[in-house]
Amino acid sequence: MARIIDGKMISQQIKDECKEEVAVLKEQGKSICLAVVQVGADPASSIYVNNKKKACAYIGIESLSYELPEETTQEELLSLVEKLNQQKDVNGILVQLPLPAHIDEDKVIQAISPLKDVDGFHPASVGAMCIGQPGFLSCTPAGIIQLLKRSDVEIAGKECVVIGRSNIVGKPMALLLLRENGTVTVCHSKTQNLKEVAKRADILIAAIGKPRMINHEYIKEGAVVIDVGIHRENGKMCGDVDFADVLDHVSAITPVPGGVGPMTIAMLMRNCVESAKR
Ligand code: GUN
């Protein structure tokens, strides 16, 4: 029987740990504040941003909300980021992506002080992670490591296959698995014999962005499968993995929803607490 890795429960544990730490910090007279910046009103982004603000409220982190109009210029956004960099009572800065097409996302990410980069997207944060130096870890891959560890899945020495090479998930995921002493393979759209490569995995991370693409033909009997995809099909949520098709072949799997998704916000909260402690 496959074990279902309960991301909702594990993310709740992490949020409760953060809540306790925030209470201690507040007793020491420290306050914690996350600035949340959204440009435009993309409905999906609005949902994510609201969930982040709700998590802040639950944990006791103050959130400063900046809802800027779609036509905000790059210069205006960069000067807001600069102001927040200077503001001593702001511990974390989150600029929700994607940004409107007329704004250069890389420029904005690079404008955020690495000391407040709670998303872990700044090149300095990515570089620090790459060489094992202190810095903020990007939230989704760090959340997946927590899911594995807190479900007693051994990573060291295991064949880990990551399908997807995005800057936000695939690449940092590969680095974090390597840091945990996994033997890591990264696959992408040009990979030949994807099924054969995926089948080597003891731990398979699916971050492709194609609904239910990964069926049992990609999976070694008894593998642990982590599904990073989030899609809506006919009003129903699904991931990159065909959950029903693989269930009898895996030893453990994350569901969609309720797997990786809630972990991203929990790790963002973790990064905010770390920032306030530093
Ligand atoms: N858009 C989708 N996911 C994320 C995230 O984790 N952080 C930010 N800033 N934007 C996103």
Automatic annotation (TrEMBL):
Give the GO molecular function terms. methenyltetrahydrofolate cyclohydrolase activity; methylenetetrahydrofolate dehydrogenase (NADP+) activity
**Keyword tRNA-binding among record annotations:** no
| Annotated binding of NADP(+), by residue | G164, R165, S166, I230
Q: What is its EC number?
A: 1.5.1.5, 3.5.4.9
Residue ranges annotated for the Tetrahydrofolate dehydrogenase/cyclohydrolase catalytic domain, each copy included: 5-119
**Keyword Membrane assigned:** no
Entry-linked InterPro entries: Aminoacid_DH-like_N_sf, NAD(P)-bd_dom_sf, THF_DH/CycHdrlase, THF_DH/CycHdrlase_cat_dom, THF_DH/CycHdrlase_CS, THF_DH/CycHdrlase_NAD-bd_dom
Which superkingdom does the taxonomy of this entry point to? Bacteria
Q: Which UniProt keywords apply?
A: Amino-acid biosynthesis, Histidine biosynthesis, Hydrolase, Methionine biosynthesis, Multifunctional enzyme, NADP, One-carbon metabolism, Oxidoreductase, Purine biosynthesis
* Family the entry assigns: Belongs to the tetrahydrofolate dehydrogenase/cyclohydrolase family.
The record's function comment reads: Catalyzes the oxidation of 5,10-methylenetetrahydrofolate to 5,10-methenyltetrahydrofolate and then the hydrolysis of 5,10-methenyltetrahydrofolate to 10-formyltetrahydrofolate.
What is the protein name for this chain? Bifunctional protein FolD
Organism of origin is Diplocloster modestus
Q: Which gene is this protein's source?
A: folD
